[in-house]
Design a protein that fits this description.
The chain is mainly beta. Helices cover 4% and strands 34% of the residues. The chain contains one helix and 17 strands. The termini are far apart.
């Protein structure tokens, strides 16, 4: 039994990933997910790494107890796949008013894997843009007013080759993620894995200092509604 469903598979143990899709600006309670701003109508596609087939392909869910892939979340915002061990990622799209999201690589072995998906609303009021590169954000600090929107453009190098662009498209490395946990704090956000040329936007309504990571250990800061103070240097 897995999640109340009887799974019969001769010789292969099927394990999650499963989870809930929710509005990151509204919060999420994993203990009571059906009541905390989950998002119905999102399309969840599970991709699997199959080197013999050339890399990432859509997981053939119909071969495993006639499962469905992709799935559309219902009123409870829930999705679930029961898979054999392997490497996977989730692609979420198709929810009106929200940006798409791609998960990091999920390794399924023999334990349950829960992935709750924080979708960010679309904001067309882009005030400023930051190029997000493998060596860090091109602008390490950005100053905004409350209500402004910041956009991150995923660029790997200034002069990326076609081969590198293809590699980073198949296996993206840039992942704008705030230090605040988006599962527990409505000021948190998670841009997902970004392919070259992809843009992620976030509107900032509350005054504060927000620190984030590009996914490779390099950090940036967003200063909202706070004027920096520069002290004069006095030489004796």
């Amino acid at each position: 039994m897995c999640g109340g469903i009887e799974i019969i598979n001769h010789g292969t143990i099927l394990v999650d990933p499963d989870g809930f899709v929710f509005d990151v600006t509204q919060g999420f309670d994993p203990d009571d997910p059906s009541e905390q701003h989950v998002l119905p109508g999102a399309t969840v596609t599970l991709m699997v790494d199959e080197p013999d087939l050339g890399g990432w392909v859509q997981w053939p869910a119909h071969l495993y107890e006639n499962q469905i892939n992709p799935q559309e979340t219902g009123a409870d915002g829930y999705f679930a796949f029961y898979t054999p061990p392997g490497h996977y990622y989730l692609q979420i799209s198709g929810k009106d008013g929200f940006q798409p999201w791609r998960s990091p690589v999920i390794t399924v072995v023999d334990k349950l894997v829960h992935v709750n998906v924080p979708l960010t609303p679309v904001s067309n009021l882009v005030m400023q843009m930051v190029n997000l590169t493998v060596s860090g954000p091109a602008r390490p600090m950005v100053f905004l007013e409350p209500g402004d929107t910041l956009a991150w453009l995923a660029e790997t190098t200034p002069d990326i080759s076609s081969q590198s662009r293809q590699a980073y498209t198949e296996n993206p490395v840039l992942h704008p993620l705030i230090a605040l946990d988006p599962l527990t704090n409505i000021l948190g956000w998670d841009g997902g894995m970004l392919i070259p040329g992809q843009v992620y936007t976030r509107r900032f309504d509350q005054i504060g200092l927000y620190s984030y990571n590009n996914g490779l250990g390099f950090t940036g800061q967003v200063l909202v509604g706070m004027i920096p103070l520069y002290l004069p240097i006095v030489k004796k």
